[in-house]
Structure formats: structure tokens, C-alpha cells
Amino acid sequence: MTIQTLGQLERDCLLLALRRLERGNSNGFDHALWLGFGADWKHVRDQMVQAGYLARQGEAVAATDHGLRLRDSLIGSVAA
């Protein structure tokens, strides 16, 4: 998965997920991923951890600096 291969709904949901995570809402992050990616949402979250966008905190995740830069790049792509 790369940002370039995501459809608009997936991009929108990923941005929503990262914004929820920024506010400390890890469950909301998971729910937004589920909305955008359906049954693959856990796989997407795991890929994001492996790529360094997220850091695990027990069962929850938190955005890394790399993840916040991804959020910023999505803001531009969603607005376009």
C-alpha cells in the first residue's frame, strides 16, 4: 500500500484516522481505518507500524513524527 495507490475514500478515512489519533483517540483511529479499509483495517494498521508511521503502546497505537508528516501530506491530497 502506498498513498498514491489509495482511492479517495481510503485517503479521507486515513486522514480522519490520523486526526483522531492526534487527539489521543486510538479506538477512533481503528474505527476510521475500518470505515476506509473494511476487513483489511488491521493489516493496514500493522503496515503503518512496520513503516514507522505508528508506534505501538500496548493494544493502542500513537502517531510518530513520520505519521504526522503523512497526515500533513494527506491534508493537501484530500483538499485537491
Describe the structure.
The chain is mainly α and 80 residues long. It is 65% helix and 10% strand. The chain contains 4 helices and 2 strands. Strands 1-2 form a two-stranded antiparallel sheet. Helix 1 (8-22) packs antiparallel against helix 2 (26-37). The longest helix is centred in the N-terminal third of the chain and has 15 residues, at 8-22. The two termini are 20 Å apart. The model has no long low-confidence stretch (mean pLDDT 90).
Descriptive terms for the model:
2 strands; 65% helix; 10% strand; 4 helices; two-stranded antiparallel ribbon; mainly alpha; 80 residues
How many individual helices?
A: 4
State the end-to-end CA separation.
20 Å
Number of strands: 2
What percentage of the residues does DSSP assign to strands (E)? Answer: 5-15%
The percentage helix is 55-70%
Rg over CA atoms, rounded to whole Å, is 11 Å
Silhouette: globular
Could you give the order of strands across the largest sheet?
1-2
Class per helix and strand makeup: mainly alpha
Biggest pleated sheet: 2 strands, antiparallel
| Mean pLDDT across all amino acids | 90
Order of helices and strands: HHHEEH
Low-confidence segments, ≥5 residues, pLDDT <50? none
